[in-house]
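seq/struct pair 1
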Amino acid sequence: MSLENFETMDTFILLSMVNMKLRDEFGDLDSLVTFYDIDKTKLVEKLAKAGFEYLAEAKQFR
């Protein structure tokens, strides 16, 4: 499953995928959104609506 269609994904599946990719494949959120060519603001807003925020020092959404 790819992140290009993140806007229509279930929020909890998206959260899991993003955190896994941040942990295993990318050094930070900017690298992830650049690789998948997705809008960082929209991604952060979608996860924020579910109560999650990006913690740069932890490299994950919580």
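seq/struct pair 2
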Amino acid sequence: MSSILTNTSAMVALQTLKGINASLTKTQDEIATGKSVASAKDNAAVWAISKVMESDVKGFKAISDSLSLGESSVAVARQASETVSDLLTEIKGKVVAAQESNVDRAKIQTDINALRDQITSVVGAAQFNGLNLVQGTEAVDILSSLDRANDGTVAASNISVERHDLTTSTGSMGSGTDLSANATLSAAAATNTGNSATITLAADADVSGDTFEITVGGATLSFAAGDITGDQDAAASAISGAINALGLVGVSASASTNVVTLTSTRAFEDVAIAGTKNGGATDITLSAAEISERAETLTFSASANVKEGDGYQMSVGGTAYTYVAGKGETFEDVARGLKAAVDGGKIADVTTQVAQNDSGQWTLKVDNNSGSSVALARSAAEGGTASGGLFGLGGIDVTTDAGADAALGTIETLIDNAIDASAAFGSVEGRIGTQNDFIGKLTDALKTGIGSMVDADMEAASARLQALQVQQQLGTQALSIANQAPQNILSLFR
């Protein structure tokens, strides 16, 4: 049935043409924008995912800038610490040269002072955008990543850069918990008299048939039968004289009736002694197997920990010398710091040494070779301000024999500190560089992923555009034909 009121064919053709035009519009939008999902109405789920990933890409770009800034800051600190290490090595050369007595130590000290001032200049200038990693102790966090979990939550990751203080600051004692129990002092005073041991000979009216063998500090004296005549007193006198004739440094002997008294003023060395009569220990008695070193000892705990700000103080002759530990330091660092402090005090005839005892505890030894006793005391407390990593550099003075000797130990410690700082900065600089490279590659991967979801396939869109244009032309013709159908009814009335 034909109708002039309802043109079904035209309606069908019109709907088809509308669909073709809609598809054509969408294809043209894809070609114009380059995206198959340009807005949420195109595909809400894919659009939402792409927007989250795009925000992550922008975040990673900012992280890359942060890493570049951090890498530059660490590079400056590394270069500074390496320069400081080189300058300290030059100072060591000057200190070694000063060990000779026939050199102009005053001129050497002038060179050392100039190098020290240069180190101070380098440390002060080692900043990038105001951040100086070779001053202070507070760590610096560099944003390194944004980690998104399955539930959508985001957590920031950081690379922590530890500062390495290469200043010469003394630090200051705190007023916190008393830590004196962590350091034990062997005596309240350091004397200059040395320590003694005795060799006692039993009563014997005639020793001419006896043999004696006495060992002192590795040197052995042998008396065959007939070498000594008389009684035990004569034997003691002969043994004493023979020991003195050896010329052992710091060791002397004296005889009193049947007793040989051995005295050692060696500062940091025990002197072993042994003795036999007629091949055995009968009729000869030693008060000790060795004469202990003259120096008094500050012994640090083997079990306690050292925290940043823990201050240890040693008083020598009424003057207090202080070292305050920095982050990550140990009792070895504390002992060496106190040594540098005491050496820097330039106390006449007082020398120091750092060593480990048989129990593995770190010790600071103080020897007094002056004409009178020197009072000793110690104290410790937490909550202080840490000393600089080059603490003790200002106290280096090679104008005297004692100062030149002390400077050797101090400069070795300072070089180790500077090398440790350089190595630490180099390690973290490498890590930051690796992370920055990874962030760049990750950003590229995210962009690729976003593109695969929302970018249009231009080849397919182009082919589809041409097909739709043909369909549009055909749809227009079909609609035109359908609209002519009612006119054909007029021929029926002719």
